[in-house]
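In the design runs reported in the main text, the only information available to the sequence generator was the tokenized backbone. The following block is the verbatim input for one such run; it is reproduced so that readers can re-run the procedure and compare outputs position by position.
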């Protein structure tokens, strides 16, 4: 029996999050420029999105560009900022060509992007807003500490305006002000390329997530690698702080 068939026989994680790490190292290992790693990584992402959809996963969140990535060399930042434009038409054609019921959303700050990129994000969100299959959540200019700080400030303003009673603030209240609202909690968080940290990604949402680390660089991550991560998740005993047997 194929690994995919085995995976489909057990409950799937509803929300998978992936830290897309290793584009540069993949390229360096092959004597290529870093941008070739980012290009190959974008192609890998398209394939993994389609596979997650085929499996029946509810949400796929990916860490595409962090609040700290602005510190990278300007040439690399400029290239990364141009990737969405390069792949917009291809993604649209790919999704529509396969008649995929995928909804695209973006989580993170938008005030530091160009008007062109903001318009692009809005186009993709609006054109897929009525889709009720897989939610493909792209985290760009995203940092969890920034997200929680922004949520706290907004809640404080609501309290100041007497629109919110501090006594009524709960976990669900805070979640309503996060960039990722209304997505469910993360079930499985995958990081590629061998690093074993979550780098300020979905700290609140991944509070009870299962972590899976692989040495595979992101551009080389394939369907089978995704199946292996899900199988590993399915073999775990999720207790959520309790004492399940």
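Verbatim output:
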């Amino acid at each position: 029996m194929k690994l995919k068939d085995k995976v489909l026989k057990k409950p799937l994680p509803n929300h998978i999050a992936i830290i897309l790490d290793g584009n540069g190292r993949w390229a360096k290992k092959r004597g290529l420029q870093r941008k070739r790693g980012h290009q190959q990584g974008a192609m890998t992402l398209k394939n993994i999105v389609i596979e997650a959809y085929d499996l029946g996963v509810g949400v796929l969140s990916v860490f595409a560009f962090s609040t700290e990535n602005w510190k990278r060399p300007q040439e690399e930042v400029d290239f990364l900022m141009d990737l969405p434009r390069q792949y917009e038409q291809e993604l649209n054609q790919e999704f529509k060509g396969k008649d995929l019921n995928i909804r695209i959303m973006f989580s993170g700050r938008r005030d530091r992007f160009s008007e062109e990129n903001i318009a692009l994000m809005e186009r993709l969100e609006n054109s897929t807003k009525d889709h009720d299959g897989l939610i493909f959540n792209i985290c760009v200019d995203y940092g969890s500490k920034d997200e929680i700080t922004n949520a706290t400030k907004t809640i404080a303003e609501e309290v100041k305006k007497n629109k919110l009673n501090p006594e009524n603030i709960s976990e669900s209240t805070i979640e309503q002000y996060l960039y990722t609202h209304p997505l469910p909690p993360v079930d499985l968080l995958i990081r590629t390329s061998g690093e074993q940290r979550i780098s300020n990604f979905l700290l609140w949402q991944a509070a009870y997530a299962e972590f899976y680390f692989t040495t595979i660089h992101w551009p080389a991550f394939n369907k089978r690698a995704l199946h292996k991560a899900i199988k590993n998740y399915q073999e775990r005993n999720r207790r959520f702080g309790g004492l399940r047997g």
